[in-house]
Amino acid sequence: MKQFAIRGAITVAENTEEAIKNATVELLNSIIEKNNLNIADMLYINFSATKDITKAYPAKFVRTELGITDVPMMCYQEMYVENSLPMCIRILIVVNTINKEFFPRHIYLGGAKILRPDITIE
Question: Is 65 helix (H, G, I), strand (E, B) or coil?
Answer without folding.
Answer: coil
